[in-house]
């Protein structure tokens, strides 16, 4: 009896062990299957976003190239054909006060209208609004060719800022509609390269336009603005078909015949197939939960403490960036007075090619290692500061020029990091309006750095010219130091406020 009982017990244990082994194998197979499915989904998603890249990034790149070109062109026209008295400064009899005021008012336009423009974009078809920006920017810059006095320039610069307001935050908002945050910094970096290349191209192109000085009674700077404005308007119109609408936009149900005609005629085909669209929708479901907003939401974002460190971060880097964009050619000319205006324009271009290199090398790390965005941002700022020290204290004009190249490399990843970080922090809690308003606040208020660099420093500080802009350069270094501190504060409080 006992033997039989022991035998049955052993058999029961053997059966149980076999069952457990089968369960474990089944679990492992299921786990392997889930991993395989996840890998397939990741690969398919990579294909989806590559397809979106081919359609969206070139369009945004062209958009930003053309809207950025105007700032670089303006800085160059201040010195074009100065040997024969035909620069913009000489033609309009501009004083340093005039140029400083004009530059400052340009950024005031951005500061005042960035938030309202981006709020409008949340309520309309975004590609239509971005196209409107490009068209109006081109039209206004074409009108620069008929300027005759300092007052006209000051007014034109303010209007340029007004019509261009919402460009940079609008593109950041548009990217958030199509890409998740862990894929956005690199994309922002991709089209941000347009600003650097446009600055480089502006330097090269201005050399050619200086050769056209006097043709048909127009000076070189007039030809430059006229051609640039015309091309920009044409490309702005093409963006109506080129850029797609929101990913999951519903067909217009308006009974207004004009609206029906407009959105039928300017309808942009969706870049994804049906299967890809569904996979994309599942990946972005979290993005489309909070689409409606009220003015209370806007006030909550403005009073959220986390926005202010990012604004300060942006303040320092964009102030340095635009300071070099507008007055880079002036710094080169002051450091080496023997250069001709054409040589200055050609030397201006490589600064922004180094900036492009910084974007391509460093922004992928900001996406991959999101936890270390503050460290990556701070490292880039230290590179800029090193460049500013070299261009200020190095001996020899070419050594000083090398400092500008170093500073350009460091500038590359800083602005994309600011914009993607604001979306990462504010989109989960506030939704659609969180992305739009945070981007506009960072861009708008952060542009006070541009006002500081262009109005208070460089041409706004005549006593600094004999010092080869030593104090202006060092003020930018101080601003960058404050940006580094702000990035550390943002890292510490990003998950500790209003969660």
Automatic annotation (TrEMBL):
Keyword annotations of the record: Membrane, Transmembrane, Transmembrane helix, Transport
Cellular localisation: Membrane
GO biological process annotation, one example: biotin import across plasma membrane
MF (Gene Ontology): biotin transmembrane transporter activity; dethiobiotin transmembrane transporter activity; solute:proton symporter activity
Pfam families for the chain: MFS_1
Name listed for the protein in its UniProt record: High affinity nicotinic acid plasma membrane permease
InterPro entries according to UniProt: MFS, MFS_dom, MFS_trans_sf
Presence of keyword Protein biosynthesis: no
PROSITE patterns in UniProt: MFS
Topology versus the membrane: Multi-pass membrane protein
Membrane-spanning residues: 56-77, 97-117, 129-147, 153-176, 188-209, 221-243, 311-334, 340-362, 374-395, 401-421, 433-458, 474-493
Highest taxon of the lineage: Eukaryota
GO cellular component: a single term: plasma membrane
Domain Major facilitator superfamily (MFS) profile residue range list: 63-498
């Amino acid at each position: 009896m006992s033997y039989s009982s022991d035998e049955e017990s052993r058999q029961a244990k053997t059966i149980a062990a076999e069952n457990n082994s089968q369960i474990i194998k089944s679990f492992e197979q299921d786990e392997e299957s889930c991993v395989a499915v996840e890998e397939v989904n990741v690969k398919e998603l990579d294909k989806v976003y590559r397809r979106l890249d081919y359609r969206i990034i070139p369009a945004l790149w062209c958009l930003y190239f053309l809207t950025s070109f105007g700032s670089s062109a303006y800085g160059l026209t201040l010195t074009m054909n100065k040997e024969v008295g035909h620069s913009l400064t000489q033609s309009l009899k501009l004083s340093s006060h005039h140029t400083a005021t004009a530059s400052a008012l340009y950024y005031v336009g951005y500061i005042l209208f960035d938030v309202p423009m981006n709020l409008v974009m949340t309520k309309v078809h975004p590609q239509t609004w971005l196209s409107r920006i490009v068209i109006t920017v081109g039209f206004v810059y074409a009108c620069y060719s008929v300027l005759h006095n300092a007052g006209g320039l000051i007014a034109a610069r303010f209007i340029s800022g007004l019509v261009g307001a919402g460009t940079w935050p609008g593109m950041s908002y548009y990217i958030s509609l199509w890409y998740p945050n862990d894929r956005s910094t690199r994309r922002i970096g991709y089209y941000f390269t347009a600003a650097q290349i446009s600055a480089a191209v502006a330097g090269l192109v201005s050399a050619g336009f200086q050769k056209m000085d006097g043709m048909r009674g127009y000076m070189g700077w007039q030809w430059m603005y006229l051609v640039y404005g015309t091309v920009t308007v044409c490309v702005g119109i093409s963006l109506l078909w080129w850029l797609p609408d929101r990913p999951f936009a519903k067909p217009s149900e308006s009974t207004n015949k004009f609206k029906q005609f407009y959105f039928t005629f300017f309808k942009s085909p969706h870049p994804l197939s049906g299967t890809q669209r569904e996979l994309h929708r599942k990946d972005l479901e979290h993005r489309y939960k909070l689409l409606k907003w009220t003015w209370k939401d806007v006030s909550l974002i403005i009073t959220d403490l986390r926005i202010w460190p990012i604004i300060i971060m942006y303040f320092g880097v964009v102030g340095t960036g635009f300071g070099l964009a507008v007055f880079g050619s002036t710094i080169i000319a002051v450091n080496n007075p023997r250069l001709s205006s054409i040589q200055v324009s050609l030397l201006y271009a490589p600064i922004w090619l180094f900036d492009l290199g910084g974007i391509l090398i460093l922004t992928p790390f900001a996406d991959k290692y999101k936890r270390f965005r503050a460290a990556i941002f701070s490292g880039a700022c230290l590179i800029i500061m090193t460049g500013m020290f070299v261009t200020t204290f190095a001996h020899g004009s070419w050594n000083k020029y090398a400092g500008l190249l170093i500073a350009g490399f460091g500038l590359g990843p800083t602005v994309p990091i600011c914009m993607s970080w604001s979306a990462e922090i504010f989109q989960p809690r506030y939704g659609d309006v969180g992305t739009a308003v945070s981007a506009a606040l960072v861009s708008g208020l952060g542009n006070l750095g541009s006002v500081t660099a262009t109005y208070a420093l460089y041409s706004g500080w005549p006593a600094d010219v004999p010092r080869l802009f030593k104090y202006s350069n060092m003020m930018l270094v101080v601003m960058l130091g404050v940006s580094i501190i702000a990035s550390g504060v943002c890292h510490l409080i990003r998950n500790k406020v209003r969660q």
